[in-house]
């Protein structure tokens, strides 16, 4: 899912159900061996849908473009794998959740449970 499709989905949800809550949050996706943090972003939309209170979540993070193995040939030497992340390309992940009635718990909604194939 790219940004344009996400915006279209938000528009359709707002038009059909109305949006109760919309928020973004940063999260630490990975950490390099030198301590540099690689950040990702979650965008969440909550609305009253056909299965009750529902949440759409789009996770975006940098694309991994290479992998470096850092090691030494000495006995007891440390081995580390350092990933190289793109500055321009992103990877998107899309999830749908519904809130359990009477509980403060979100359950992932799978396409199979909605009758979508």
Helical/strand content category = alpha+beta
Taken together, the total number of domains comes to 1
Spatial extent as radius of gyration: 19 Å
Q: How much strand content do the residues show?
A: over 45%
Low-confidence stretches: none
Largest sheet: 5 strands, antiparallel
What's the overall geometry?
A: elongated
How far from one another are the termini? Answer: 17 Å
| Number of contiguous helices | 2
Q: In sequence order, what are the helices and strands, one letter per element? A: HEEEEEH
The average pLDDT is 85
Total count of strands: 5
Helix content: 10-25%
Order the strands across the largest sheet as they lie in space. 1-2-3-4-5
Short description:
The protein has 117 residues and is of the alpha+beta class.
Overview of the molecule:
The chain is built from two helices and five strands, in the order αβββββα. The radius of gyration is 19 Å and the shape is elongated. The chain has one domain (3-62, 90-114). Strands 1-2-3-4-5 form a five-stranded antiparallel sheet, covered by helices on one side. It is of the alpha+beta class and 117 residues long.
